Amino acid sequence: MAASGIETALRMLEGRWKMVIIFHLFDRGTLRFSELERAIPGVSQKVLINQLRELEKDGIVERQVYPQVPPKVEYKLSAWGEQMCPALDLLLEWTAQRPQGNAET
Length: 105
Description:
Structural class: alpha+beta
Protein name: Helix-turn-helix domain-containing protein
Domain HTH hxlR-type: 3-103
Order of helices and strands: HHEHHEEHH
InterPro entries: ArsR-like_HTH, HTH_HxlR, WH-like_DNA-bd_sf, WH_DNA-bd_sf
Number of helices: 6
Strand content: 5-15%
Helix content: 55-70%
Oligomer: single chain
Organism: Dongia sedimenti
Keywords: DNA-binding, Transcription, Transcription regulation
């Protein structure tokens, strides 16, 4: 059962940019699409849109569209997505404790 739960969690978070998006929303709260695009310079617009759609579909991110010209779209973590924040803090702490001899190549 635990392995199935982990597989589900990893499926929802898989994708090169999803965790980066989540961290930006965790750190800065509500962000417009253009702000996310600037905050993550390595991501293409198409991929960012797809990753945000998947996060929204999975209930991790909420999307707010304002009916104006030009359109204004904002993203934020859902209440359920915010529950992930303590785990993200632990992940950051765990990464910071990485032994020096095991640096990425």
